[in-house]
Amino acid sequence: MFWLAARSVVVSLPKWRSFSLLLRTPASKCISFAPSPLLLRSRHVERIYCFKDHKVSKGSARGTKKLKASSTVLHDKDLSHIIWWKERLQQCRKPSTIQLIKRLMYSNLLGLDVNLKNGSLKEGNLNWEMLQFKSKFPREVLLCRVGDFYEAIGIDACILVEYAGLNPFGGLRTDSIPRAGCPVVNLRQTLDDLTCNGYSVCIVEEVQGPTQARSRKGRFISGHAHPGSPYVFGLVGVDHDLDFPEPMPVVGISRSARGYLIVSVLETMKTYSSEDGLTEEALVAKLRTCRYHHLFLHTSLRHNPSGTCRWGEFGEGGLLWGECNARHFEWFEGNPVTELLYKVRELYGIDDGVVFRNVTVPSENRPRPLHLGTATQIGAIPTEGIPCLLKVLLPSNCMGLPVLYVRDLLLNPPAYEIASTIQATCKLMSNVTCSIPEFTCISPAKLVKLLELREANHIEFCRIKNVLDEILHMHRNSELCEILKSLMDPTWVATGLKVDFETLVNECEWASGRICEMISLDGEIDQKLSSSSVIPSEFFEDMECLWKGRVKRVHIEEEFAEVERAAQALSSAVTEDFLPIISRIKATTAPLGGPKGEILYAREHEAVWFKGKRFAPAIWAGTPGEEQIKQLKPAIDSKGRKVGEEWFTTIKVEDALMRYHGASDKAKAKVLELLRGLSAELQSKINILVFASMLLVIAKALFAHVSEGRRRKWVFPTLFRFNKSSKDVKSLDGTNRMKLIGLSPYWLEAAEGSAVRNTVDMHSLVLLTGPNGGGKSSLLRSICASALLGICGFMVPAESAMIPHFDSIMLHMKSYDSPADGKSSFQVEMSEIRSLITGASSRSLVLVDEICRGTETAKGTCIAGSIVETLDNIGCLGIVSTHLHGIFDLPLDTKKTECKAMGTECVDGQTRPTWRLIDGICRESLAFETAKREGIPETIIQRAEDLYFSAYAVEVSSERIEERKKQFYSGGTVNSFHEAHFPPRGTTAGALDHNTNSGKVEVIERKDVESAITIICQRKLIELYKQKNTSELLAVHCVAIGAREQPPPSTIGSSCVYVMLRPDKRLYVGVTDDLEGRVRAHRSKEGMHHVSFLYFIVQGKSIACQLETLLINQLPNKGFQLTNVADGKHRNFGTANLSLESMPVH
């Protein structure tokens, strides 16, 4: 059972909201919707006349008429939109734009001054027609098709000049209204420029086709372009794909009894979600990672009745205000969900009958979303100078939707059940031995928009079929089927759609079969282009490539046959009327200035004509070709104008051309009708398509993570729930504790020995001390990342791990001041600590680095001590690191807090860090050594040491120094003195069709190759085992990688012998420890995109190299042709003494 996308929720919304609501709550000057003082002179505004004083000549009836037209009454709804545009225009900075703005009059939505040239709004003219379109979508830039241009006037022209880099029509003349536009071929670039700057665009197209004389062409709204939602009109008829950006929602924020509420509405998907109980830091983190189209702030955010929007100037709310202050936003009131949906309908012109589906996933038992500081300090939100967690979780070649899924999962950790499912799925993926699909990723928003607007073309249908076929491929494979089933719940959480497994499979089979019945897939050769020996091939290519090869011929057989007959008739007409003239010209010889003529394709006019000169005979003598010359007439274009002096045609050829174009247009119309009909059929299955596409995105993300995790030698942690019944955090059965053995910084390659591993066994709160550069910050960052990865179901950078499912993970590191909010760094730190303490529970992980560093030492130490007591009383797990050693002299009331330190050692009389976690307290800061290492002059260092010893002579007595050395000597090996962050390490559109004849030939050949490989390699292994005098014998098991498949993660780090089956029926034999990378490299070459492979795994590179050489030398004897025969000459490569113990061959 699954939920219908458009039938889940019915929202009742009021049809009208008075603009007086806006007038009662005027906004700050910082926001995008601040009313102009000129327009708001009175508190009770019923109507406003917006016109300028103009000098009108006496007796000028036309001027008087225009002035009357300009005195139009603006009502509330129009006035609000004009104020909105005025605020946008105030941000324009180009001199040319500023000059255009001066010619605007805000008496209508277009901003036209009717007293200027071309400014008339007379009913029936183009300006009036554009005003009607503008009134339907008043907050969108209007582009109207006029011939070969898309034009904008008034306010919209100013926006085009400012943001699209276009020049105004007519220059900067002051007697004409602002006008600008772009050629038809540049429409896509213009739309991209406008949407990238946050504007929505309404596009008006002309009705194509002949019109009567002196009649205006009909126009219609063809579509819209929004940020995150491109313009798709006409895509069904083209032969290329369109990139879809990440959809941008409309976001509303309000205050509730539980905390902060954020509502997100996606116009493209017709969905909305709400999340309540957020902290201020978590809310700001969501705003930082969400590229939204519009931001609305609820009036519940205001803390006082005076109307000011600077809420929370001291304390809570300041961080959110600082985030919103730099952005455009508008106020709203009432029910947050209902009112925001009303705003969305108003913004996008959506009818009341359109239903928005609620995709909110219940948040019970889910960990709290990450705070902004936590997300930035571990690189979940990319931050300069911080190692990016996303870049080490996935391979560098994994991009797009899978990366976005992983990022969202980290920022919003799942419930325990989902995290356990994700981990179990990853474990299955890690053990898969069969080849895996490529996992075609399609944006759900793209699917919904193209199918809803009936604009999906044949390329998109092939991609949809790829998605469906990959789901079915996983279902039919026993190993992958378990993975497919386990991905159902994570996909439900990601989409809000609950789909039954059997329903998914059955619907995918139906949809895939329906597409296969309609769409012409790769390899079908029954739709060749028409051809003729006398007509240039480019003509037929341009005319027929627009519709051939899109749907199967059986559906357009009648239209197809008519086009073939029309093409034959055109070829006959050209042969009869033009060819005799060509023959006559070729037979005529003249040394200079002789006759010339040829049959050419006039691409601009979509015609085949005769082009020649000096071909008419001086004396008509009845010779061959004269009759055809007499039939020639000048060629004319579609507007009846003569094309040129050298272009000619005949009545018969023109009739044949007209017949051919008519047949071709009819065929194209039939193809588009069939494609749009298929879109309508699949739209009824949109939930299944969205679910399937998202499932493959998740599958690709998890497979990529497992592959990278195996390469980095990461492990799966033991994930468990907190013991709710036990109040003692130090329970003996291992619950309510976190243990990380062999933990390494996530940004370092621990497998290469470039990191110091630590063991962290955390039962309670830990007070951590250590020297500068000793690894405290790196340890906290590593623990935070590992805990987060664990509760999300991912692998962690450790040798083994036990991680409880925390209800929140909070990391606080260094703070900076915020001048915009008038806060010092210590104020910012205290604000973050306040949020951290109020959000912590006994099931939380709290990590604080160098607490209270930004204030006076004595009082800062006491504040830090009090915070430690509070966290100890809460009973959370965590670490608080500090250089405030006076905290150990305070009478702290703690019960479970432990003291640990980052170890040091003495080498050549100097104290150095070991970067290892030990028990105890470390009072050595290595401050002088650190300052010296960073280039502070020696004189300053020496003076500092003198001052230190004179002021703190008691603390640094020799007895205490020796005591510290004995207490903290760790005996580790010194690798480096730095604690610096090392920088992290850096589809085809064809559908799957396994039933074609070419596929059968490939299968037969693959079996022959597999049999030969098995015989050759098995014989060699028998010889090796006889030499070892052992009875154990392992069989060679070849695994196939199909044309649109890739190796499983189990091949990572294993020595593989592989054979590539090239399209030219030749073989390539190779050996590698990175099979996935080698397959990708081979397929990146021209003509190799769909090659298949056979491989088997052996223990050790030496054995693999021997078998590679053996195959290269023996396969030609079996009748196979190889491309790398020369590699077989290296017979002695890798023939060192073999160790056959535990040498499995898979």
Automatic annotation (TrEMBL):
Keywords: ATP-binding, DNA damage, DNA-binding, Nucleotide-binding
Highest taxon of source: Eukaryota
Pfam families found in the cross-reference section: MutS_I, MutS_V
Kinase keyword on record: no
Alphabetical list of PROSITE patterns matching this protein: DNA_MISMATCH_REPAIR_2
DNA mismatch repair proteins mutS family domain segment(s): 844-860
Protein name: DNA mismatch repair proteins mutS family domain-containing protein
